[in-house]
Amino acid sequence: MKGKVTAGKDKPTTVTVVIDLAKGDVGDLAKCCADCDTPHKGSKGACSATLVVDAPSLTKGNAEKVEAALKDVKGVDAKASKAQVKSKEIHVKLADKGGAKLADIKKALDDFIKK
After folding, report:
1. Torsion angle of the four alpha carbons 11, 37, 73, 83, in this order, in degrees rounded to the nearest 10
2. Widest distance between CA atoms in the chain
3. Fold of 26-113
């Protein structure tokens, strides 16, 4: 991956990307992001990647089960992942070391993403 992102002053910068799963996966993006040289790397932490998953079946009642659903998924930081009930989204924190596969994440979150 190549490109340039201008760092925000105090807010994180959000970048949307399209990944060709025949050539790579979301874990590759996370590793690339963590390895980026940014002005805040030393003082405020390294760049990281979060996958936003639409979760139409996410409710207040099942939101607490998201961490458990993700705990065994390789390349995912389940504890840092967040269920956003109001927006019906799950923010999956991808591990900096990479290794995450979109198919594994979708399988783990199947109960939340089916309509």
Report:
1. 0
2. 42
3. Alpha-Beta Plaits (3.30.70)
d(CA 114, CA 79): 22
**What is the tens place of the pLDDT at every residue in 1-40?**
455 555 566 666 777 788 888 888 999 989 988 888 776 6
The whole-model pTM stands at 0.84
Amino acid identity, position 89? E
Q: What is the Cα–Cα distance from 70 to 35, expressed in whole angstroms?
A: 24
Task: Give the whole-angstrom CA distance, residue 97 versus residue 42.
Answer: 18
Other beta carbons within 10 angstroms of residue 61's beta carbon come to 8
pLDDT of residue 110: 96
